[in-house]
Amino acid sequence: MADFQTLFVTVENGIGTITINRPEVRNALSRQVVSELQKALEMCRHDSEVKVVVFTGAGDKSFVAGADIRELREWTLFEGLAAAMQELCSEIEQYEKPTIAAINGTALGGGCELALACDICIAQENARLGLPEVGLSVLPGAGGTQRLARVVGKGKAIELILTGAIIEAREAERISLVSKVVKSGELMQAVREMAEVIMSKGPLAVRLAKLAIQTGFETDQRTGLVVERLAQALLYTTEDKREGTTAFLEKRKPHFQGK
Question: What is the pTM of this model?
Answer without folding.
Answer: 0.93
